[in-house]
Amino acid sequence: MDKHGKERQRTQDPSQTEAFMKRRAWVCGTLIVCALAVTGCSPVQKILPTAAWRQARVCNEGYSLLYQLLSQESDVAKLLIIKHADPPIADIIKEIASTCDQARKELELFHEKDRHLSLEMTNLPQIEQQTRAGIESTMIKQLLFSSGKKSLKFASSSSKPRP
Q1: Domain total for the chain?
Q2: How many Å apart are CA 118 and CA 93, to the nearest integer?
Q3: Is position 128 within any domain?
Q4: For residue 87, what are the domain limits?
Q5: Helix and strand tally (H, E) in the chain?
Q6: Segment 88-103, tens digit of pLDDT
Q7: Which one of 36, 68, 129, 162 is most buried, by most CB atoms within 10 A?
């Protein structure tokens, strides 16, 4: 080809170049869409938890159960609002509530210092949660509706020396 033939080709090329560019953009766009579709539909592999993660989970579950127990027991002194107890028994109940409340506050301080520590992770099976709720309900009813005389008689008779 001579010099004039190349120039003539360049002058005719803009329409061919536009068509080529459009085709190229369409092919690239199609490839991108296909690539996204393929990667978006690929199965997500499950990452198995590490031993450290399992240990942290067990630790958090234990602290959560302890926190839940301490929270419940710190309210035991509220029973004295409804029920009357002799001063030695009332003192013991208040001491239990106070000790549990202090321990609960300590756990809250642990949580503030270590944000990885969860106090609300009680991953118990539902049947265990229902069983614990049933036991708690039964104990509350027994404490509220009991006269306390049996346990007081038992405590006072066991503390007397036998002849």
Answers
A1: 1
A2: 29
A3: yes
A4: 51-145
A5: 6, 0
A6: 888 998 999 999 999 9
A7: 68
